[in-house]
């Protein structure tokens, strides 16, 4: 346990040296906020009352203007300044500093909701090398941007056909690199309240930067299907929110270390730079200045035959399907998205599931069997179907027949 903590914190210190903005800001100007823990009530009763800022506040904390900090925290409903609560020497030592030895993190639970860890991605997957290269290079370039004598675009826009593995492989890479990303999806880019999505992006960006600062993990902001939220199709109108979101992203890529969330500028508004990765099907529907080269690096992703065979082979391997058999499946169903081949395998389960339903007494008894099991009752065992090339071919044909109904 102790050993684990040590490695974690040593990582924090290595990382923080990589962020000049933070260290520069620390050496050039002292923090504007001075905070100290309140004296115990016995001291107060000894006539120390003159020091207290207000009778209501139990915390003798001043902000840079000498005002009661607790009052200010209350006034700013969306306060993001978690550093105050997490710093050793600032709040009570019982909760930080001497006891834990380091800064604690009081909003850890909150952040877990927007960040994502990838425990569900178990098993062995194949990541196409070109894809891996591009994403890893973008992330690393952004983390060491201050050491490079070039302009590094903050945003990587991965685009290409649907179901080609843009989101899935990016998540696999996050898992492999131990990155804890903050995720946004296109749905969050629109709101009935104008300005809300733009603010959300800035908040999520800062949250990602705080993951780096407080948890010592690498992080980034991932926006899935950005063109669905931002793109203009045909004669659709550009909404106020669209404009604000585009403006916010452009502003972030121009000033990655200075991110306001709608209050007056404070020292703590200087954030660490964190890379942004967007996926989308067609980036050309997005406002051109946002996707120009200095702001967004674009990467068109389409797996080639070898990538597809490798990816599909890795998922079928455990069923005993050989590489040559995979090649024949891919050749029989060409021009299909990656999720098609995954679906073939799931489809072969359908027949076994129908049989299993019959075994447990048919559809009429399904509800009782599935949901109202008695204590010592057990569901009949489900035997997964044996995967054969023939079964996969058959479910492929069935999928194609179904798809032709839609397009007919
Ligand atoms: N490397 C891989 N290994 C195994 N399966 C994969 C891999 N890449 C993609 N898949 C499968 O393909 C499916 C679709 O991939 P994904 O959702 O990433 O596509 P996408 O390019 O983001 O599509 P969209 O543009 O529609 O968002 C995944 O759910 C997964 O089942
Ligand atoms: Mg996707």
Automatic annotation (TrEMBL):
* Localization terms from the record: Plastid, Chloroplast stroma
Tell me, what is one Gene Ontology molecular-function annotation carried by this entry?
A: ATP binding
Gene3D superfamilies linked: 1.10.8.1070, P-loop containing nucleotide triphosphate hydrolases
Q: Which domain of life is it from?
A: Eukaryota
Keywords of this protein's UniProt record, alphabetized? ATP-binding, Chloroplast, Nucleotide-binding, Plastid
Family to which the UniProt record says this protein belongs: Belongs to the RuBisCO activase family.
Supply the name of the protein.
Answer: Ribulose bisphosphate carboxylase/oxygenase activase, chloroplastic
């Amino acid at each position: 346990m102790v050993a684990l903590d040590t490695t974690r914190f040593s990582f924090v210190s290595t990382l923080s040296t990589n962020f000049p903005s933070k260290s520069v800001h620390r050496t050039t100007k002292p923090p504007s906020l001075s905070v100290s823990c309140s004296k115990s009530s016995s001291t107060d009763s000894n006539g120390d009352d003159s020091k207290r800022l207000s009778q209501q506040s139990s915390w003798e904390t001043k902000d840079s203007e000498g005002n009661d900090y607790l009052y200010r925290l209350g006034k700013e409903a969306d306060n993001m300044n978690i550093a105050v609560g997490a710093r050793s020497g600032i709040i009570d030592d019982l909760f930080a500093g001497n006891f834990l030895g380091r800064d604690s993190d009081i909003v850890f639970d909150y952040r877990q909701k927007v960040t994502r860890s990838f425990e569900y991605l178990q098993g062995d997957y194949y990541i196409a090398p070109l894809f891996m290269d591009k994403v890893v290079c973008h992330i690393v370039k952004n983390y060491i941007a201050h050491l490079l004598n070039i302009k590094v675009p903050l945003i990587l826009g991965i685009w290409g056909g649907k179901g080609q593995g843009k989101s899935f492989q990016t998540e696999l890479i996050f898992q492999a690199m131990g990155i804890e990303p903050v995720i946004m999806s296109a749905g969050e880019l629109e709101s009935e309240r104008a300005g809300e999505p733009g603010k959300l992006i800035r908040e999520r960006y800062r949250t990602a930067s705080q993951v780096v600062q407080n948890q010592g993990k690498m992080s980034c902001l991932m926006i899935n299907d950005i063109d669905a939220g931002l793109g203009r199709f045909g004669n659709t109108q550009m909404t106020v929110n669209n404009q604000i979101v585009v403006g916010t992203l452009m502003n972030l890529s121009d000033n990655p270390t200075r991110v306001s969330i709608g209050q007056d500028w404070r020292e703590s508004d200087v954030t660490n730079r964190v890379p942004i990765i967007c996926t989308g099907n067609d980036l050309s529907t997005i406002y051109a200045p946002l996707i120009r080269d200095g702001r967004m690096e674009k990467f068109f992703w389409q797996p080639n035959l070898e990538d597809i065979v490798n990816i599909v082979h890795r998922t079928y391997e455990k069923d005993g399907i050989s590489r040559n058999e995979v090649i024949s499946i891919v050749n029989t169903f060409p021009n299909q998205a990656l999720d098609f081949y995954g679906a073939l395998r799931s489809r072969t389960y359908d027949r076994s599931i129908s049989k299993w339903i019959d075994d447990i007494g048919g559809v009429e008894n399904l509800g009782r069997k599935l949901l109202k099991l008695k204590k010592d009752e057990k569901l009949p065992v489900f035997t997964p179907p044996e995967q054969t090339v023939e079964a996969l071919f058959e479910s492929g044909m069935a999928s194609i027949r179904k798809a032709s109904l839609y397009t007919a």
